[in-house]
């Protein structure tokens, strides 16, 4: 029978729940990091990614609304995160669209939900459902720890390739540089909220499970991008991955 873990034990368990399911392992990510995608492939990524991360402030707003008033630091973090997404400097989605346009697509295509894949639609729907229905600490575990905390490790592998292989400018890849820094901070604050407020065995176990599911969802989403847009041009054998 599960027992209440101390903070160190729980932190390790949360990290283990995500380990092995990083989106870095998806063939789309492998192809990107090795410079084997075309700009058209990257444009399809941007068109999909917009509909996953574009509503992130909305997801957080639902969590904020469900968070008890005495969770003061957690509410402050959620509000600050929303502010950074939408108002603190350039809107993050505008930076993503700037990159998308550099890849050859348009703002109109990026903003059109008809251009996202069914798997992306599923990830977006899952994020909304978790934010609206789950206990706020469990929702933070899902969206901030399970999803957002992965971003720096993913973009650190992909961003150098964008400059060195594809020749994008610093302005065109600002979206990635920004999230390497900001999501490392957000991810750590998310961990601290979960470690502090998941104070029962049930809450700890729910947080662990939803972190695992969140990591699986991002891996599934990224893998689907390969099969939907890249597989016909770049077989797995060219990525040294088994078919």
TrEMBL record:
Annotated InterPro entries: Haem_Oase-like_multi-hlx (IPR016084), PqqC-like (IPR039068)
Keyword Oxidoreductase attached: yes
Q: Which UniProt keywords apply?
A: Oxidoreductase
Task: Enumerate the Gene3D superfamilies for this protein.
Answer: Heme oxygenase-like (1.20.910.10)
- Give the protein's recorded name: Iron-containing redox enzyme family protein
């Amino acid at each position: 029978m599960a027992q209440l873990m101390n903070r160190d034990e729980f932190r390790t368990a949360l990290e283990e729940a995500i380990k092995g399911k990083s989106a870095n392992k998806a063939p789309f990510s492998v192809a990107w990091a090795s410079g084997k995608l075309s700009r058209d492939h990257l444009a399809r990524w941007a068109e999909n990614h917009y509909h996953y991360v574009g509503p992130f402030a909305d997801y957080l707003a639902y969590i904020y609304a469900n968070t008890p008033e005495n969770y003061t630091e957690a509410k402050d973090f959620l509000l600050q995160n929303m502010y950074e997404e939408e108002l603190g400097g350039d809107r993050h989605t505008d930076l993503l669209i700037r990159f998308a346009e550099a890849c050859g697509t348009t703002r109109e295509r990026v903003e059109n939900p008809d251009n996202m894949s069914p798997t992306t639609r599923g990830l977006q729907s899952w994020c909304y459902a978790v934010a609206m229905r789950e206990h706020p600490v469990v929702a933070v575990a899902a969206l901030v720890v399970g999803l957002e905390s992965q971003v720096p490790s993913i973009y650190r592998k992909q961003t150098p390739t964008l400059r060195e292989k594809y020749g994008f400018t610093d302005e065109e890849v600002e979206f990635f540089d920004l999230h390497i820094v900001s999501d490392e901070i957000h991810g750590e604050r998310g961990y601290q909220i979960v470690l502090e407020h998941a104070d029962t065995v049930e809450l700890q176990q729910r947080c662990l499970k939803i972190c695992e599911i969140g990591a699986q969802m991002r891996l599934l989403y990224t893998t689907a991008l390969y099969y939907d847009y890249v597989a016909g041009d770049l077989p797995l054998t060219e990525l040294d991955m088994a078919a």
